[in-house]
Amino acid sequence: MWRSPEPRHDVASALVQGGRSRQEDAVLADFPCGTDGGIAVLSDGMGGHAAGDVASRIVVTEVHADPAFARPAFAADESAIPRHLARAAKGANAAVRHHVRTHPETRGMGATLVSVVLVGDRMFWMSVGDSPLYLLWGGRLHRLDEDHSLAPRIDLMADRGLITPMAARDRSDRHCLTSVIPGGEVARRDCPALPFALRPGDVVLMASDGVQVLDAATIGRILHRNRNRNRRRPAARIAACLLSALGDPADPDRDNVALCVIKPNPARAPAAAPPLAQGARP
User: Fold this and answer.
1) How buried is 165 (Cβ within 10 angstroms: 0-12 exposed, 13-18 middle, 19+ buried)?
2) Packing angle between helix 216-226 and helix 235-245, nearest 10 degrees?
3) Cβ partners under 8 Å of residue 172, min gap 6
4) 270: CB partners within 8 A, 6+ apart
5) What is the pTM of this model?
6) Strands 133-137, 140-143: parallel, antiparallel or unpaired by DSSP?
7) pLDDT tens-digit profile of 165-175?
8) Could you report the per-residue pLDDT of 83-122, keeping only the tens digit for each?
9) What DSSP string describes the chain?
């Protein structure tokens, strides 16, 4: 049990429309005061005029609802959390399908998904699409979820010498998704059965692919520089530094950006994690 007047987790989220005509990203962070955890959901809509903005909001709303209603029972049975995350994604997919059926002009819309549930210092998560879920641990940045786009396949071709690194970087199909929540079949999803054990000094970053104009090394440096325990930089400061590094938000070439930064609060933290979370590290 968390016994501190400060919240268990320091959380900040941000949305920037950039130079796009509409905001197709959505993010929701729900960490009520007086509780031992929370829920965060992020989605990047696709479809442009086919209502990608609607798709991302449907996904965020639906995926938040199931775990939120079930949250009181999580402390007694954490093993059920991945099932709730999977069921929530299935419900979001059904809601997208229903919207397309009742609004045929939105056919072709869809959205990515990253969702996390924290109970104490244990983090459960689920991902569909290419929106990254990062963990800064031990001073190094790790991507926890897989990239469900063509980018990994194209980079593998470059690694094998089949194409040049420049050709791989410039290919127009890099960001074509191989899995998404489209209202139809969801090709792939990541949803580990066991949680990661977070420690003071760790930083979790959920983001849309708009943040990836920064390479992983740059993102890692920003998180590492600002997460120092002695500095006690809040999550909001880390989010602001990331947004600043992305450049001018009015740049016409700048994509939508959504992000959520989560830091365990070090005040009076437990000395050790429960057995369920032992060994669950990158």
Assistant:
1) exposed
2) 150
3) none
4) 120, 121
5) 0.87
6) antiparallel
7) 888 887 877 77
8) 999 999 999 999 999 999 999 999 999 999 999 999 999 9
9) ----SS-SEEEEEEEE-TTSSS--EEEEEE--TTSSEEEEEEEEEE-GGGTHHHHHHHHHHHHHHHHHHHGGGTTT-GGGHHHHHHHHHHHHHHHHHHHHHH-GGGTT-EE-EEEEEEETTEEEEEEESS--EEEEETTEEEE-S---BSHHHHHHHHHTTSS-HHHHHH-TTTT-BSS-B-SS-----B--SS-EE--BTBEEEEE-GGGGGS-HHHHHHHHHHH--TTTT--HHHHHHHHHHHT--TT-TTPPPEEEEEEEE--TT--SS--GGGTT---
| Percent above pLDDT 70 for the chain | 89
Q: Tell me which amino acid residue 269 is.
A: A
Cβ pair 238, 226 in contact under 8 A: yes
Residue 278 to residue 157: CA distance in whole angstroms? 36
Q: How many residues does the chain have?
A: 282
**What are the structure tokens assigned to 241, written together?**
């530094």
CB-CB neighbours of 116 under 10 Å = 26
Span 114-168, pLDDT tens digits: 999 999 999 999 999 999 999 999 889 999 999 887 776 877 788 888 888 888 8
